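Run log, item B.
One chain of 360 residues. Sequence copied directly from the ordering sheet:
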Amino acid sequence: MRILIASGSSGGHIFPALALIDALDVASNQVLLVLPKKSQENKIPLKLVNIEYIHTSNFTLSLSKKNIFGAYFFLLAVFESLRIIIKFKPDVVVGFGSLNTVALMFWAWLFRIKTIIHEQNVIPGRANRLLAKLVDKIAVSFDQTANYLNISAKRITLVGNPLRRELVKLKKEEALDFFGFKEGRFNILITGGSQGSHKLNTVCFESLSALKVKNDLQVVHIAGIQDFAVFKEKYVSSGITCKIFDFFPDMQYAYSFADLVICRAGATTIAELQKFAVPAILVPYPFAYAHQLANARALESTGAVLIIKDEALSAEKLSDELLEFLKNPSKLEVMRQGYARIQVPDAAFLLAKEVLGFRV
């Protein structure tokens, strides 16, 4: 089969797309990944993947210079998408959400090419809500997503959120050795997602710096490209044992090392927490239709995570929670056991099965 996969520029879109490519038999199928040009700024490794890039831009209907340019680049992407469809001649087109995929999915629908979209979040984004009415199938990560799609349940299939094949749980000793850390300390992973989170970076650093028990902590902090240099310098003089990264591709080491994760609640992060069964403090990103809060609520019901809303997050609040975990380590074990209530399917395999099911 000739399989075209279209994704947005964020890690939350690209990583599931790469996981699907891993699960597909690329020796028997021709696979092309289409990404927006701005994704070239990411550090996400894309080796051994056939890629085409298209223009894209967000815009609204109000009259401004920014929106005029945005509309122009969107129309440019429409024609670039048509060119790709005609040249590649896909048997099936798979979309992973965002405005960047709309034109490709539309042309596929118009040419009667089989189509499937994957929704990573509990609440579908605007692009997937629009495309759901056109495509042949909708694969979802959460049961609750069906409630937000006004379509026949027969077209919806639950697969979970595809994760990269290398994300496997390692022995804690191996992960500690990878970072050069010691055993017997409280290990914290801080990550704001593939783009980083300035607020999370700032509050976490202030909270850790204020603790009198810094010597009991070991931290892996993935700060994002924008904040990396500033916070690397801050940690040097803080007395905190920390390995800080701008971007960290080998997340299997980070999750296997961690006793607790402090993070946003993007769909890929939620899936990774489930995979590695790590207790977490989730601080959902407050914008984008509250997608992340809905993701976090889905996991909160198991008792595996604690939610702090973005507006309630402060260094004092976070310090109190960390001290509570240090005083009562059994609380972490109770949270970890909450993951036993969750079935974690092989989402990449299930999605690949749905895609290959279109084979004539």
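Observations after the first pass:
- The CA atoms of residues 190 and 221 lie 5 Å apart.
- Residues 172-341 form a domain with the Rossmann fold fold (CATH 3.40.50.2000).
Flagged for discussion on Thursday.
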